[in-house]
From TrEMBL:
It holds the Pfam family AAA. GO terms for cellular component: chloroplast stroma. This is Ribulose bisphosphate carboxylase/oxygenase activase, chloroplastic. It comes from the Eukaryota. The lineage of its organism: Eukaryota, Viridiplantae, Streptophyta, Embryophyta, Tracheophyta. Activation of RuBisCO (ribulose-1,5-bisphosphate carboxylase/oxygenase; EC 4.1.1.39) involves the ATP-dependent carboxylation of the epsilon-amino group of lysine leading to a carbamate structure. It is found in: Plastid, Chloroplast stroma. One of its GO terms (molecular function) is ribulose-1,5-bisphosphate carboxylase/oxygenase activator activity. Belongs to the RuBisCO activase family. Residues 129-160 form the Ribulose bisphosphate carboxylase/oxygenase activase AAA helical domain.
Amino acid sequence: MGVEPVIMSAGELESEKAGEPGRLIRDRYRTASQVIQNQGKMSCLMINDLDAGVGRFGNTQMTVNNQIAVGTLMNLADNPNRVSIGQKWRESDVTHRVPIIVTGNDFSTLYAPLIRDGRMEKFYWQPTREDIISIVHGMYRKDGLSVEEVARVVDAFPNQVGEEIGGHEQLSVKLLKRKKGEELPTFIPPKADIKIDPWSSIGLRKFQPTKPT
């Protein structure tokens, strides 16, 4: 697409210094603006997993930095051409407007005015059957399974998440309970077989997550 993104993560939205994350957001925003001005390329500020950085979960408390980060993002959305990082205000200091793209899993944990219509445009991605087949086939490509064979597994368990299809069983137990000096477990890839027993598949379907309505 020819876009030169400036990327942040949720881990940068907290600091031992009050106000540091807000300043960092403004600094990265101005950096993206300078890319547009100096290189003639389209740029954007991308923040991954925003809800993990400034969202509210259960009884977790909101810090001053969380509030400042949210306030900074709201100000950038409302006034994108005047962005200061602490220097003296100048009439000619105009910042190019930069798109801000954020990703997340649960935006309902964010401050409501930040995500209201007009300030944030939201796009929801739900993988289609073809997307799921492509993902699972990528996991088992080295095992020699064809797309048609993978499609049979996906259709047999339509509501199953990908990590349940390709996850290693008890991997954390094998690694965390390993004694000092003991060799790491050797992974012996099993022979891939997609034969589905109709009776066992009926039993497994009882444990499938219900499809959301």
